[in-house]
Amino acid sequence: MPGKGKIINDPVFGFINIPEGVIYTIVQHPLFERLTRIKQMGITSVVYPGAQHTRFQHSLGAFYLVSEAITHLRAKGNEITSAEAEAVQIAILLHDVGHSALSHVLEDILIDGIRHEEISLMIMEQINQELNGRLDLAIRIFTDNYPKKFLHQLVSGQLDMDRLDYLRRDSFYTGVSEGNIGSARIIKMLDVKDDQLVVESKGIYSIENFLTARRLMYWQVYLHKTSVSYQQMLISALRRAKSLAEEGIELFASPAFHFFLYNKINKTKFLRNPECLKNYTLLDDNDIWTSVKVWCSHPDKTLSTLSQGIINRKMFKIEISTEPIDEERKEKLAERISKQVGISKSEATCHFVLTPSNEKNMYDPAEDSIDIIYHDGTVKNIAEASDMLNISLLSKKVKKYYICYLRLTEKN
Question: Which domains can be identified in the chain, with CATH numbers?
Answer without folding.
Answer: 6-94+135-222+362-396 (1.10.3210.10), 225-358 (1.20.1250.30)
